[in-house]
Every structure is written in C-alpha cells, then in structure tokens.
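Query form — protein Integrase

QUESTION: What is the three-dimensional structure of this chain?
INPUT:
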Amino acid sequence: MDEHYRTFIQFLVMTGTRFGEATALRIADIDLRARPATARVNKAWKRDRHSRYYVGPTKTAAGKRTIGLNPALVELLIPIAASRSGNDLLFTTTDGGRISHKPFWQHHWVPPVRTAQARGLVKTPRIHDLRHTHASWLVQDGGMSLFAISRRLGHASVRTTEQVYGHLMPQALQDGADATERSIQGIRS
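ANSWER: The structure tokens for Integrase are given below.
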C-alpha cells in the first residue's frame, strides 16, 4: 500500500466507516485528547444529479454517530492532525485534495491487491470489505452487543447488522441452548 494512504486504510478497518464518511472527515471531527479519543461522523460525500460531488448527510440518520478510537489508531492520527487546521480534510490525496473512490481504487487499491494475489491471496477484496472486516472482528470478539455494533457501524437497524453478520455468532447458538437447559432444570426435577 502506498505509504501516504496507509493510515487512511487502517482508519477504515479500525473504525468500520464507509469510504464516503471517512473521506469527508475534517480535523475538527476528531478529538484525539478525549478518553477515549473519538471521530464524529456526521457527513459523507454525495453526488448530485449532474455527478458533481458535495458533502451531505450520512447514508442514514443512524449514520450520524461518534466512534471511539483505539489507542493504536490514535497514534497513527496524531502526526496527521498535529499541524493542520480544523477545517482541513483529515485524509487527502498527496496534493491535498479529496480522495475520490474510483481513482483511489484504480491507483492505490488494485495494485497492492494484485501484488498480494501474486503472493497467494485467493480473494479480490473491495475497499468496502474493510468495513466488513471491522464488523466481523467486533462480532467475533464477543465483547459488544449487536446493538452497540449496529450503532458503531451507523446501521439504521440492528436487524441489518444481524442479517449481515449474524452468521458470525456461532457462540450465540450455544448460549441459547445453554440458557434453555438452565431454565428447564426446575421443570425436570
């Protein structure tokens, strides 16, 4: 991965934000001194009917959220935010412009994916798969409720989270069976 974009990619996978949300973040949207540090997601890049880009609302009302940032990510963000104005974009191209999806995908995503495939990667991951990876980590860790994961991802409903990631919760099947077994002990005695 191009060195300039590594922190951006790590931000996507460590926060589960959508590409258009992450690229719309401004320095003022992150608070690296808070405990925990946070990113306030309240906008995203959109296209109007003439295919011109503008900053608008998140995909859903639930997409407007504050995300806690892990310490390793904070360490990566400190040098980026240190000497920049609050109105500056957090992540930019090498010339300071907005990161556009298609050019980023063509020039900075596909080449490292092809390199990884030459070294044995059998899949062809999309940028959006970083969001799925993040959600999968949260589900499989078991430390967060599905409701909390849903809110972190900005899903309009917990049902969306459950439908997309529920298959990653095999322990939930066992937990349900165990709870039922405990509940019927009084009946069987």
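ADDITIONAL NOTE: The chain has one domain: 3-188.
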